[in-house]
């Protein structure tokens, strides 16, 4: 199976590390930075290197994997699908829902597979937490708390709202919105506010939001890239009439490209007792399951409509901010 990976300077290395753990793949890349090219060629099995996306598209690929600025997702995604390739791309699906819907429709028109990668959806603790919620062990869920905080001082395209589509919420925060909605389900309303707190971003870097779920539960989201020296706290807590569930931040793995098993969240505490979650590498899992869907002509494990749902929630927070 031939795969083209577009953009390996940053998070693209994570994609390459996962792809190189799988068998029978021929990998080409699109990259212009010579230092990055030399690094990935020394570390991974790379066949061909292209400095130009259109030049690479003259070849036939089974899968094209895009790790590029968000504002390029529509243009590059449509081009990939028109070649007949199946499409992977990093979140978000686009900078706005209408463009995301165009990519979904193009994939359906061409009869090709399309999936937005979100390792948080595949995390073993999220999978187990959803099973616990569905089992009724927690009783009636009344509160869900999801949060993440860090300090961001990097430079690059993420600093610019026109490239990223907003700020930290549409970039890293959309992962946590996915967790919130996977736990809480459909919602009636979202009330929130995004602001600039003091990171290197030019757009928003801090968001607080209240989700009012159709079930009657409430969800509290806090996400910030402007929190210096932040404490380790659970990334999520689910509280019900019969018990509680929360994530253990001390048992998280690191995300180094050489780490054998990388997860997003730590283990779970159910009613005060630690559960040892069976772990697997989430990056390899999400890509391998997409490849299986392509090979077997099956539905992709993370439907693009679900990622579109998450983006719509981001935009509702942006557009309906309290004053």
TrEMBL record:
GFO/IDH/MocA-like oxidoreductase domain residues: 127-245
SUPFAM superfamilies xref list? Glyceraldehyde-3-phosphate dehydrogenase-like, C-terminal domain, NAD(P)-binding Rossmann-fold domains
Q: What Gene3D superfamilies does this protein map onto? A: Dihydrodipicolinate Reductase, domain 2, NAD(P)-binding Rossmann-like Domain
The cross-references to Pfam families, in alphabetical order and at most eight, read: GFO_IDH_MocA, GFO_IDH_MocA_C3
Out of the domains of life, which is the source? Answer: Archaea
Domain called Gfo/Idh/MocA-like oxidoreductase N-terminal: residue spans: 1-116
GO molecular function, a single term? nucleotide binding
Identification of the protein by name: Dehydrogenase
């Amino acid at each position: 199976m031939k795969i083209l990976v577009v953009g390996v300077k940053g998070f693209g290395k994570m994609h390459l590390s996962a792809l190189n753990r799988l068998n029978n793949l021929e990998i080409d890349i699109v990259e212009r930075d010579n230092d990055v090219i030399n690094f990935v060629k020394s570390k991974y099995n790379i066949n061909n290197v292209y400095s130009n996306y259109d030049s690479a598209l003259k070849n036939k690929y089974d899968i094209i994997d895009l790790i590029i600025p968000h504002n390029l997702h529509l243009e590059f995604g449509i081009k990939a699908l028109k070649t007949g390739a199946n499409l992977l791309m990093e979140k978000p699906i686009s900078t706005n829902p209408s463009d995301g819907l165009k990519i979904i429709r193009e994939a359906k028109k061409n009869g090709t597979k399309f999936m937005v990668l979100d390792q948080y959806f595949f995390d073993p603790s999220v999978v187990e937490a959803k099973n616990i919620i569905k089992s009724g062990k927690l009783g009636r869920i009344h509160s869900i708390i999801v949060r993440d905080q860090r300090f961001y001082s990097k430079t690059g395209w993420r600093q610019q709202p026109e490239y990223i589509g907003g700020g930290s919420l549409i970039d890293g925060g959309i992962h946590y919105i996915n967790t919130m909605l996977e736990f809480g389900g459909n919602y009636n309303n979202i009330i929130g506010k995004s602001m600039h707190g003091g990171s290197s971003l030019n757009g928003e870097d801090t968001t607080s939001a209240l989700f009012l779920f159709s079930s009657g539960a409430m969800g509290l989201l806090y996400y910030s890239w402007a929190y210096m020296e932040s404490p380790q706290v659970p990334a999520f807590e689910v509280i019900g009439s019969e018990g509680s569930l929360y994530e253990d931040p001390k048992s998280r793995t690191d995300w180094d490209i050489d780490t054998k098993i990388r997860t997003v969240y730590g283990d779970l505490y159910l009613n005060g007792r630690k559960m040892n979650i069976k772990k697997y590498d989430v990056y390899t899992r999400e890509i391998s399951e997409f490849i299986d869907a392509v090979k077997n002509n099956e539905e992709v494990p993370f439907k693009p409509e679900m990622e579109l749902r998450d983006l719509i929630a981001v935009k509702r927070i942006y557009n309906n901010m309290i004053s």
